[in-house]
Design a protein that fits this description.
By secondary structure, the protein is an alpha/beta fold. It folds into 2 domains: 140 residues, Response regulator (Rossmann fold); 56 residues, Arc Repressor Mutant, subunit A, CATH 1.10.10. It is built from 10 helices and 5 strands, in the order βαβαβαβαβαααααα. The protein has a 5-stranded parallel sheet, sandwiched between helices. α2 runs parallel beside α3 and α4 packs across α6.
Length: 211
């Protein structure tokens, strides 16, 4: 196969060991060429402009921005960019945000080597690649009751252990309004108390502890 026919792949992950492992897999396939490795979203943007990859493999969580935000940044400049998220997490919110941002695929980092190579080829060919388990989680997210942006703000503060009064003070709203938001959150998450809400929010990836 001529060098010009090779699928150009860019790897974006803030862990060098992960990048090295993925690079080794790419190097074993004669249909592909590794054109760059980035450790942050900002570096990914610079390398994308320079190398114009056919497919980008991107981590969902990076120090400067998440994968969904990075995809949006790239696609704002390169509308046909084909990106596959490679994540350690199958949280439905992560999956939903990535697909909404324009990801063409979503794989877990423990996926078999052949599944990764197949996904690159399929996405390069214009297909989407969302394995069954991931598709199920995405369907659960799409089919669920959507939280409003204000409810997400309240939920994040609940997870951090704030009382209704503290949440009201931080958001500039009354304690009664906070209680109303909390009740809506409990209803939409199908739980009965704040502890269950925190558990479900973390499990589904609606909120992350580091936020």
């Amino acid at each position: 196969m001529a060098k010009t026919d090779l699928i150009k792949v860019l790897i974006v992950d803030d862990h060098p060991v992960v990048r090295e492992g993925i690079a080794r897999i790419i190097s074993t396939d004669k249909r592909m060429e590794l054109v760059g490795e980035a450790g942050s979203a900002q570096e990914a943007m610079q390398l994308y402009r320079k190398t114009r990859p056919d497919v980008t493999l991107m981590d969902m969580r990076m120090p400067d921005m998440n994968g969904a935000q990075a995809i949006e940044s790239i696609r704002n400049e390169f509308t046909n960019a084909r990106v596959i998220i490679l994540s350690s997490f199958d949280h439905e919110e992560d999956i939903y945000q990535a697909i909404q941002a324009g990801a063409r695929g979503y794989l877990l980092k423990d996926s078999p080597r052949n599944e990764l190579l197949s996904a690159i080829i399929r996405v390069h060919g214009g297909e989407r690649c969302i394995p069954g388990k991931i598709a199920t989680r995405l369907a659960e997210r799409v089919g669920g009751n959507e939280l409003t942006s204000r409810e997400f703000e309240v939920l994040r503060l609940i997870v951090k252990g704030n009382s209704n009064k503290e949440i009201g003070d931080q958001l500039g709203i009354s304690e009664g309004t906070v209680k109303s938001h909390v009740n809506n959150i409990l209803s939409k998450l199908n739980v009965t108390d704040r502890t269950q809400a925190v558990s479900v929010a973390l499990k589904r990836g609606l909120v992350h502890l580091e936020e």
